[in-house]
Specification:
Helix content is 20%, strand content 48%. With 44 residues, it is of the alpha+beta class. The chain has one domain. The chain has a 3-stranded antiparallel sheet.
Length: 44
Amino acid sequence: MNYSYFVGLDVGKKTFDASLMCPDEKELGHKSFSKFETIRLKRK
């Protein structure tokens, strides 16, 4: 099975980071959220 993209998630004490990468290790996108921002998004 071949995969085209990889998703990386990192949960820290104050932030939540998400990253999308292609197989040649180039980062296609990255977004960092504060934990308070993710809590607000969840409640809507």
